[in-house]
């Protein structure tokens, strides 16, 4: 899908400096996250990112992006993984959790905002390949959707996001399998871990989320340490 990755198109000094320095790893850095709150201009149009996602909803076209951007930096500094449930939005704060409903087939999913875009007329969100597959739009390329932010993002203080964070380490269609993993995590001392039930397109999933951490940086450190055991793990805010 044609789109512009903010990490390549925006003239944000902090972002460019971080990229030039070759920041390693897949996690967002403080410098990247601070930069994502600044106004930016693409194709002569200026966008002003929101400081709060509370109550945000929108309706329009969704598109998706995949192989051509897989492994490249997103606007918040993460390495884009087309197999994770993420998306790009022009103004929502990074790390916002968003419910996306395909108005053409009724299917729903939840994604985490970690990039900027799409910069194409009438399109409001650019989904990862995994999210597009959940919504059934990989074949059509676009679909009419309604999006709604699931609460606000955590506070940003002293160069870090603060709040309650979890690392999602698995999603199961069999509840017993989720319960087994949760039991193992609690035995290991992660007593704040939990199971969250979700309905995606009429299909139930039980998501196992390890926790808790009180800052985004601490949760990202934990996620990196868990990569070998849980390759698809990602951080979410409560």
From TrEMBL:
Family annotation (Pfam families): DPBB_1, SPOR
Membrane topology term: Lipid-anchor
Subcellular location: Cell membrane
Superkingdom of source: Bacteria
SUPFAM superfamilies: Barwin-like endoglucanases, Sporulation related repeat
Role this protein plays: Lytic transglycosylase with a strong preference for naked glycan strands that lack stem peptides.
Name used for this protein in its record: Probable endolytic peptidoglycan transglycosylase RlpA
Source species: Megalodesulfovibrio gigas (strain ATCC 19364 / DSM 1382 / NCIMB 9332 / VKM B-1759) (Desulfovibrio gigas)
